[in-house]
Amino acid sequence: MASYYNSMEVPGFLHYVRCGKNLAMVSDAVIENIRLVTCQDLDIEVSAERFQQGQKLVIVEGVLSGLSCEVVEAGNKNKLLVRVELLNRQLLINIPLETLSFA
User: Fold this and answer.
1) Can you tell me the distance from the alpha carbon of 53 to that of 35, in angstroms, rounded to the nearest whole number?
2) Which of 3, 20, 62, 102 shows the greatest Cβ crowding within 10 Å of its Cβ?
3) Taking residues 49-59, what's their average pLDDT?
4) pLDDT in tens, 70-86
5) What are the sequence ranges of the domains in the chain?
6) Top-level CATH class of 28-102?
């Protein structure tokens, strides 16, 4: 129980992730994906909205290199829906077309 309260003292702590009354386990991969995306100077919008499938692409340059994505249109802008597992959310990212390749 002491580690439960001690972890609340970590700088940047907001709250524990829960499923109902139980604490949720978040995998190291999800934590690393969050760290990867939040440490970059990218125009990112987090969305819980489900999008219809579009053209599948792969990011081939930059810090998101290797991630699969697909093109969507949102708010009259062409954006990329980058499928990164971040607690059941998707990230909408404006990214230069030259950093993309067909999947």
Assistant:
1) 26
2) 62
3) 77
4) 888 766 666 777 776 66
5) 28-102
6) mainly beta
